[in-house]
Write a structure and sequence with these properties.
By secondary structure, the chain is mostly helical. Helices cover 71% and strands 0% of the residues.
Amino acid sequence: MKLIEIYNYYWNEKSDTRTNNLPLMGSPIIIPAIILSYLYFVLKYGPQFMKNRKPYNLKTFIQWYNIFQIIANAYLVQQNISAGWFSEISVYCELPDYSYKPGPMKIAYTMWLTTMLKLIDLVETVVFVLRKKQEQISFLHVYHHVSTILLIWFMTKYYAVSMTSFGILINCTVHVIMYTYYYLTTLGPNMQKMMSSYKPIITSVQMVQFVICTLYALQTYSPSCPVPKAPVNAAIFQMIMNFLLFFNFYRQNYIKSIQKKH
């Protein structure tokens, strides 16, 4: 089989026809190019550009960005629920439905919207660079953003179905909480002081989501749940990696700091 035929088979014929023609989904180049541009800017060009410049304030932008994220993530939660979650779709094994019925179509479209939102999430790191907050651009931060985009892109292109949308439902719910916290911390020193005790809780909530999503995915290994294993394996690997990185962050920043105080 010629390379062009292999490419066409795996990239087009094997893909989900409902999402493959949506913006950025049909090309194998655009999203990787965005990710590579992001990595180049936040790891090399951006820090060099800001080296002899004063940090930008961007407070108003950050506030509006957080408001946008709260609204966008809440909308995605609502769309998943209106597509059938907790009514027609249960938390147990659901066979893939690639039909053009309203519910499955809404799931597929919501997954595409989530992919677009995850690309917008990259703006956060750009803001860190422009504010000269280079210490916040950790391996955890960069890996989490990049790997999440790649995973949701893969899922949306090939497996835009109810079981793969479970992680989106959980993640977007967590992000509503997270960005509400971030927004509140922009309201001045007094609010920052008031909210500081909630910071470890936000990290804990993020870790809990990885545990929930991993447990949910594990049911697909049961013989009574004959679903494709490729997205399951990718999702479980992603959840375990993120859990370990977040746990290490939690241990370094909260557990050890408490131990030092005592």
